[in-house]
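Exercise 7. Given the encoded structure of a 200-residue chain, write a plausible sequence.
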């Protein structure tokens, strides 16, 4: 009688167990996805911690000190705000995340383009240039912060979460170092960027 009750209890709970196992299986990420996320993490952090901070002054100061100030101040507001956004709006789609990474790369490239124009103005307009410089800084800060949190949250899932988060941190540092290592000689030795006159 007890064996019958135990078997009935097991059969009753088994659908829940299977559902949990199915959900856990779906949350697992493949090795190829894992590699893609690590590479994207390095790219985003190279832009966020190495490239953008190095060229922001060249991209903004040709228009005014206020442009540079507002770009930095508002980016410091946007960045933590976008870090909270994955708690409400997130995606696990690798194509979408790759597309957002490409978008962040395009915005970063535009900031580099503005910096390369220095001390000249884009469209020879202070107003348009100021809006574009500030807008690009905010968009880059938002995309970089959002993607970094989403990538880490994806790697946190599954059985090997500790190991994957460790390597996520490693690739964050690799990307940051690579971005800084590339920009340092370009700015200090190659001199491809020219500072705007202080009077502006």
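Solution.
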């Amino acid at each position: 009688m007890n064996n019958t009750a135990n078997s009935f209890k097991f059969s009753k709970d088994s659908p829940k167990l299977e559902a949990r196992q199915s959900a856990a299986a779906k949350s697992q990420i493949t090795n190829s996805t894992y590699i893609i996320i690590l590479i994207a993490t390095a790219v985003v952090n190279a832009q966020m911690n190495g490239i953008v901070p190095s060229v922001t002054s060249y991209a903004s100061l040709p228009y005014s000190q206020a442009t540079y100030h507002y770009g930095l101040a508002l980016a410091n507001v946007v960045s933590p705000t976008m870090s909270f956004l994955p708690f409400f709006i997130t995606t696990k789609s690798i194509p979408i995340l790759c597309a957002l990474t490409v978008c962040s790369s395009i915005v970063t490239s535009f900031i580099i383009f503005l910096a390369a124009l220095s001390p000249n103005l884009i469209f020879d307009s202070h107003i348009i240039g100021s809006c574009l410089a500030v807008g690009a800084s905010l968009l880059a800060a938002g995309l970089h912060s959002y993607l970094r949190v989403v990538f880490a949250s994806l790697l946190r899932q599954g059985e090997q979460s500790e190991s994957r988060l460790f390597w996520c941190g490693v690739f964050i540092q690799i990307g940051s170092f690579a971005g800084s290592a590339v920009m340092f000689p370009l700015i200090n030795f190659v001199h491809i960027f020219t500072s705007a006159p202080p009077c502006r």
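Remark. Confidence is low (pLDDT under 50) at residues 7-12, 14-26. Students should compare their own answers with the one above.
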